[in-house]
Design a protein that fits this description.
The complex is a heterodimer.
Chain A lengths: L1 H22 L6 H4 L7 E4 L1 H5 L5 E5 L12 H16 L4 H8 L6 E5 L11 H13 L7 E5 L2 H6 L12 E4 L4 E8 L2 E6 H5 L3 E11 L3 E3 L23 H7 L1 H4 L2 E12 L11 E2 L3 E5 L3 H19 L13 H7 L12 E3 L1
Parallel strand pairs in A: 2-13, 3-4, 3-8, 4-5, 8-10
Antiparallel strand pairs in A: 2-12, 6-7, 8-9, 10-11, 10-12
Helix pairs in contact in A: 4-5, 4-6, 9-12
Chain B lengths: L1 H14 L4 H6 L6 H7 L16 E2 L3 E3 L5 E3 L7 E2 L10 E4 L2 E4 L7 E6 L13 E6 L13 H4 L13 H10 L4 E4 L8 H13 L3 E6 L5 H8 L4 E5 L5 H8 L4 H13 L2 E8 L7 H15 L5 E5 L14 H13 L5 E4 L9 E2 L6 E6 L2 E5 L19
Parallel strand pairs in B: 8-9, 9-10, 10-11, 11-12, 12-13, 13-14
Antiparallel strand pairs in B: 1-6, 2-3, 3-4, 5-6, 7-8, 15-16, 16-17
The chains are: A alpha/beta, B alpha/beta.
């Protein structure tokens, strides 16, 4: 089975490489169209591209940008499916997810539901993801949707009744493995379900401002699996966000990062502040580079802040310095000039 | 060897009168008899985060956009809506700041007052000792991390209002209530209210703290406190930053303010091999105490045992503690002690005038108190402290 998986991955990568030249001609983020640094597929030579997947995939849809009506499940699935397929170099999201998993994996989907409905991963997106995981052969009991509390999951609309029978929705609710573990400059007890059960992680965050960390995207979402996140918020969460994501319990299990940016928030986070939200109408996905995902999300937020006439995060002295630290730790690329970003 | 040594130490602790309640229920538990009293009519089931009790926090100010700035400790956490400060026990909800631990202790015992340790406050008495969860720093060697380095919803708590605390102290004839085990600064509202009620009931309230607190809340607390013990983790900023996630300077300021206020203060220095055990550091620390606080300030050099996130270092050699003691003596301190080494001669108090032993202790037990009206029975030298 392992050989099958490797074969699929190689084929996927070849397919991705073949498409890369065409994709570089596609305008990417709004900022790129306006002449800002865009995805740099092409740098590093064609041979390097041919052998690797894109760092980041952005999937935006007009159907997700309507203010007047909630996006349909079909529109959400269309964007997410295309992004996962593109990020994994597969023909569709099911094949893509299958390529990321090993037989018998227990898949933990870490959500960020702190802000409640409207600025948490939306149920339609999570349902689509779960559906594809099931199609990819993951048994329902081996799919765990989790966040730090049942209350927050419920407030975001993530409840067991909207998923197929057997899929587990778990609030950590202080069920930690009470053995302190050292990570980077700090130490924590980790969620028992992560320590004992989950073997593969999908990180599903949002695109939002954070009062202290600068932004809360993918990497910051891991604060939700430790018992003492309050200890890691001083000094702009630096360097904690990076070192926590580098901890083997997370790093070695992470398969996919998804940011739900259908609605994003440029200021006033981490709680939901409708004054600062807007329908960005897309998703940011990567199967290879969780740092590039955050660097891309950061750019989305900074662009919006500029449009609104807000000072940049750096000007507000809360630029996410942990992003460069994450790159230094080898988790991925923080420099947008080097990120190979494609649109799906 | 190690087993025999552990056994000897365990027996010595028993001999020393280590708190029976602690031995029965664990360091982070609840004295069964007290729990029965304390919890009558209340639930001992751990609360979920949705039903944590809220009580208005003091010492904060609002900022723009619904954020607040906490003024309790030098961290001055800026807290957005739905977020908590570093202590994890104070939360912003809708632009107002709340404490989640007022009247919600997680631990209650009757300890010998020497366990705090206070060696110059009512020796040989019991102290009703309680803690609510939380701490505003994070020592890698925290001895009570299961209650200090957690959020309130992660530990079993029960309701115990300040007047109930005072009533328990009266019932069990403890002349003091000690706010201890975790970091009472982060539950200062509760400490203050306990102190105010207890004072009226003729019971002194003691604070066992890291001293990491701002001037205004400290000033308020001192209106109701009887004595304070400060854990001076080290005399180096580097240590505070790297090992404790804190700062030294504000702690030294607190010590000076306590001195200025006239509050009886004792200092504990947990000596950790290779981290804060140099002679230079002992000397600097002793000079500071002698010059800024006065030679009468007791300083307890206590033995480290591996704990929490610092398990790769050995226990402190007794000789190191003796060196610290000797340096402190040489720098002019009258009352340096050696702690966590039951039976050591430096557990006892000696008259700074004539050198006679005036209080004989082993560990937490007072074997003999020879003081007469707070003076040395041999030469009449006044021994500073709270003796009645």
């Amino acid at each position: 089975m392992a050989i099958d998986r490797e074969r699929r991955q190689v084929l996927g990568k070849l397919l991705a490489g073949a498409l890369a030249g065409w994709l570089t001609r596609v305008p990417l983020l709004a900022g790129a169209r306006r002449g800002r640094p865009k995805g740099t597929a092409g740098k590093g030579g064609a041979s390097a591209q041919a052998s690797s997947l894109p760092d980041v995939v952005v999937a935006r849809r007009k159907a997700l940008q309507r203010q007047e009506a909630a996006p349909t499940p079909e529109a959400v699935a269309d964007a997410l499916g295309a992004a996962i397929a593109r990020a994994t170099g597969a023909k569709d999201p099911v094949a893509g997810l299958r390529s990321l998993l090993r037989p018998g994996d227990v898949v933990g989907v870490k959500l960020n539901c702190l802000a409640g409905r409207g600025l948490s991963p939306r149920p339609e997106l999570v349902r689509a993801l779960v559906g594809w995981l099931l199609e990819a052969g993951v048994a329902p009991r081996r799919i765990i949707l989790f966040d730090r509390s049942t209350r927050e999951l419920r407030r975001a609309g993530i409840v067991p009744s909207i998923f197929p029978a057997g899929v587990r929705v778990i609030g950590i609710d202080n069920d930690y493995d009470w053995t302190p573990r050292e990570w980077g400059p700090s130490g924590s007890c980790f969620a028992r379900v992560l320590v004992r059960e989950i073997s593969a992680l999908v990180n599903v965050g949002v695109v939002k401002d954070h009062d202290l960390a600068g932004v809360s995207l993918g990497l910051k979402n891991w604060y939700g699996v430790i018992h003492n996140p309050n200890k890691m918020h001083d000094d702009g969460c630096y360097p904690y966000v990076a070192h926590l994501a580098a901890y083997p319990l997370i790093r070695e299990k992470l398969r996919l990062t998804i940011l739900d940016g259908i609605v994003a928030q440029a200021h006033g986070g981490p709680a939901r502040s409708p004054k600062w939200t807007w329908p960005w109408g897309g998703m940011i996905v990567s199967a290879t580079d969780p740092v590039a995902v955050d660097a891309t999300g950061l750019r989305v937020i900074e662009d919006r802040r500029r449009e609104l006439g807000l000072p940049s995060l750096a000007e507000e002295k809360r630029a996410p310095r942990w992003l460069a630290e994450a790159a230094r730790l080898g988790l991925g690329k923080a420099d947008v000039e080097r990120i190979r970003l494609v649109e799906a | 060897m190690s087993t025999r040594e552990d056994r000897r130490e365990f027996l010595a602790s028993l001999l020393a009168g280590g708190c029976a309640a602690c031995l029965l229920s664990g360091a982070c538990g609840i004295d069964p008899a007290l729990a029965q009293d304390a919890a009558s009519g209340t639930s001992l089931i751990p609360p979920t985060d949705s039903d944590l009790p809220l009580s208005p926090a003091r010492w904060w100010k609002p900022l723009d956009g619904g954020r607040i700035e906490c003024g309790l400790c030098p961290k001055k956490c800026r807290v957005a809506d739905m977020e908590r400060g570093m202590c994890g026990v104070r939360e912003n909800r809708g632009g107002k700041y709340w404490t989640l631990v007022h009247s919600r202790p997680c631990t209650i015992h009757i300890d010998p007052i020497e366990k705090k340790p206070f060696y110059h406050v009512l020796p040989g008495t019991g102290s009703l000792s309680l803690a609510a969860p939380g701490c505003n720093i994070e020592c890698r060697f925290c001895q009570n991390w299961q209650i200090a380095q957690v959020r309130p919803e992660q530990v079993r708590t029960f309701e115990l209002r300040p007047e109930q605390v005072a009533a328990l102290a009266r019932k069990y004839h403890t002349p003091t209530i000690a706010c201890t085990y975790t970091e009472p600064v982060v539950w200062s509202e509760y400490v203050y209210d306990i102190g105010a009620v207890a004072k009226k009931a003729g019971v002194r309230t003691l604070l066992v703290s890291n001293g990491f607190i701002n001037e205004e809340p400290l000033g308020d607390l001192l209106k109701v406190l009887g004595a304070v013990k400060i854990d001076l983790k080290s005399f180096r900023e580097k240590f505070y930053k790297e090992v404790c996630h804190g700062e030294l300077k504000p702690v030294l300021e607190t010590l000076k303010r306590l001195k200025k206020h006239g509050t009886w203060t004792e200092i504990v220095v947990l000596v950790i091999p290779t981290l804060n055990d140099s002679k230079e550091e002992f000397r600097d620390l002793a000079k500071f105490v002698a010059n800024e606080l006065g030679p009468e300030t007791p300083v307890h050099f206590t033995r480290f045992h591996p704990s929490f996130r610092l398990r790769n270092l050995p226990r402190t050699p007794v000789r190191t503690l003796e060196i610290a003691h000797d340096i402190a003596k040489k720098e002019g301190l009258w009352f340096p002690y050696v702690g966590n080494v039951p039976g050591h001669p430096y557990n006892s108090t000696y008259c700074p005038g004539c050198g006679a032993m005036v209080i004989q202790r082993t560990g937490m037990a007072v074997l003999e108190n020879r003081l007469k009206d707070g003076r040395c029975p041999k030469c009449g030298h006044e021994i500073p402290g709270i003796w009645s």
